[in-house]
Amino acid sequence: MKSIYAIHEVFDAIQRAKAEASSFTTNCFPNNRKLQDWIDRGELFAETFGCTALFGRVDRDFWHLYFCAPDHQQLHAALTNLPELRTERFVVDLIGVAASLEPLLSIFQSTAFRRYKSLYRMARAAEQPQPPTTPADERIGLAHKKDSQTILDLICQSFDKYAEQLPVLSEIETATECHQILAARNGESIAGLLYFEDQGFTSTVRYWLVDRRFRDRGFGSALMRYYLHRPSPVRRFILWVIADNLHAIAKYRQHGFAPEGLLDYVLANEMIPP
Amino acid sequence: MKRVTEILKGIRPEFDFTTSQDFIRDGMLDSFDMVMLVSSLDRAYSISIEGVEIIPENFKNLQTIEALLRKHGVQQ
């Protein structure tokens, strides 16, 4: 794959696939800010096969695969011809409602990918703001930039790097500067954290965790309550959760989240052990 | 237009879609919501919106959605 040096290269490739499309297919929903970050860090690569573009993003010791193709047949041909798929670790996310994903799933499973994990999206609406009935929890506050390495270590220990799109250190530093990470503190230690992203009226929970050493002391619930009830224009909260993580799902339900029918099938190639 | 508003409300009851000119910027719809919205519009109007049309420009506000529906022969 060849390096991508500018955002327009990505959009040009998408446009070429769309121009020839009979049934355009993609898992590439570019967000300019994220694309630019990937390019700046030298993480984004691409290969084209006719009008089909395959993008690879380096993440630690593996790659995320993104595609845009005029139709399923050309996608299949491109996957068959990408040599890196036989030598490097790759994951691909297929996102949509279950029935619409079946044809894509078949294509990837016929090119040496297998189901690795499934995630589904949960959501809840914001409640009307009400005056606090209990005193503010002094254990909860914004994380600081100097906490970033500790936060990264906690996230890496708690989440699956192949399935959960883990951040790099610079993203965490930026998130602390943008006040997007809440920390629960126990003395000098970070006992837990909630990392989120606000976009207009919607807020996404990216990571919510409590360090093993501090579980069953109410840190997780305190973080979530603080997050859900902080002053903000947010009307809707969303998150992705691994479908077989019943413990996390139960916790999210307790806080009012419910599934909304959108799925993310994470597939892994043969280079990633089961 | 009213029917489209109702469909949007069915997907995202917490938002008032008549007050925004940019659903994406305002966080009222994201790329994944667009996939769900397309399924609902297809069903409601017996049309088939192509994958190539599932782009933010077509779902920016009520006017752009209406324009997309007109392309598929739907008269509001």
Could you tell me the radius of gyration of chain A in angstroms? Answer: 20 Å
Distance between termini of chain A? 25 Å
Strand elements of chain B, count: 0
Text of the CATH class of the largest domain in chain A: Alpha Beta
Distance between the termini of chain B: 6 Å
**Inertia-based shape of chain B:** globular
Report Rg of chain B: 11 Å
Low-pLDDT stretches of chain A: none
CATH architecture of chain B: Orthogonal Bundle
| Record field, number of beta strands of chain A | 13
Order of helices and strands of chain A: EHEHEEEHEHEEHHEEEHEHE
CATH class of chain B: Mainly Alpha
- Structural class of the helix and strand makeup of chain B? mainly alpha
Strand content of chain A: 25-35%
User: Helix tally of chain B?
Assistant: 3
CATH topology of the largest domain in chain A: Aminopeptidase
Structure, described:
The complex is a heterodimer of chains A (274) and B (76). Chain A is of the alpha+beta class and 274 residues long. Chain A has two domains: 2-119 and 265-269, Aminopeptidase (3-Layer(aba) Sandwich); 127-234, Gcn5-related N-acetyltransferase (GNAT) (Aminopeptidase, 3-Layer(aba) Sandwich), CATH 3.40.630. Chain A contains eight helices and 13 strands. In chain A, strands 1, 2, 3, 4, 5, 6, 7, 8, 9, 10, 11, 12 and 13 form a 13-stranded mixed sheet that branches. The mean pLDDT of chain A is 94. Chain B contains three helices and no strands. By secondary structure, chain B is an all-alpha fold. Chain B has a single domain, classed as Non-ribosomal Peptide Synthetase Peptidyl Carrier Protein, Chain A, CATH 1.10.1200. In chain B, 46% of the residues lie in helices and 0% in strands. Chain B has helices at residues 2-11, 31-45, 62-71. The interface between A and B is medium-sized, with 25 and 17 residues.
